[in-house]
Write a structure and sequence with these properties.
Helices cover about 30% and strands about 35% of the residues. By secondary structure, the protein is α+β, with helices and mostly antiparallel strands. It has one domain: Hotdog Thioesterase (Thiol Ester Dehydrase, Chain A, Roll), CATH 3.10.129. Strands 1, 2, 3, 4, 5 and 6 form a six-stranded antiparallel β-sheet that branches. The chain is globular. The mean pLDDT is about 95.
């Protein structure tokens, strides 16, 4: 995977890193990586129809089930990062995706988050099937991503198969 390949993925968040994101080691603290990934997740959600209005109207939501993070290079205050996203798969209820943080200042991949999420019925507080219109939008993203000529660097521990613990 190259920076050019990552740039070809949809961009869901861009931000210049403020001084208060730094930790005692002089680089961005891990909690801010999660904040950047979270912002990108909301961008992906909006793009496929999982909007705040949809959630409110249908008493629905999304739950994170599993996540795996890789840190590849440091990010410092004043640098600009961009979060690009690749959809890896989906089932009737779940969606598997990866976010990639690119440090645009240094032209390096900084981190990735592999995530498994589920559509949820907030009245019952449990997983529920994705509505057809949203499933179709996810499928369109997935079809584009399946045509890419590179394999996503997945951890191998996340699967769409049902897990009795979830």
């Amino acid at each position: 995977m190259t920076i050019d390949q990552l740039h070809a993925l949809p961009l869901y968040h861009r931000q210049t890193i403020p001084d208060d994101y730094m930790d005692a080691m002089g680089h961005m603290n891990v909690r801010w990586y999660m904040a950047l990934f979270d912002e990108a997740t909301w961008g992906l959600f909006d793009d496929v129809g999982l909007t705040a209005a949809y959630f409110k109207a249908h008493q629905a939501g999304g739950f994170a089930l599993r996540q795996f993070i890789n840190y590849w290079s440091e990010v410092h205050a004043g640098q600009t990062v961009a979060v690009h996203t690749r959809l890896l798969g989906r089932s009737a209820k779940r969606f598997h995706f990866m976010h990639f943080i690119i440090n645009e200042t240094t032209c390096q991949a900084a981190a990735s988050l592999e995530s498994l999420g589920t559509h949820a019925d907030l009245r019952q507080r449990k997983s529920s099937p994705l509505p057809p219109a949203i499933a179709e939008r996810l499928d369109a993203h997935l079809a584009r991503n399946q045509r890419l000529d590179w394999q996503a660097p997945v951890c191998g521990a996340i699967t769409l198969l049902p897990d009795p613990a979830i």
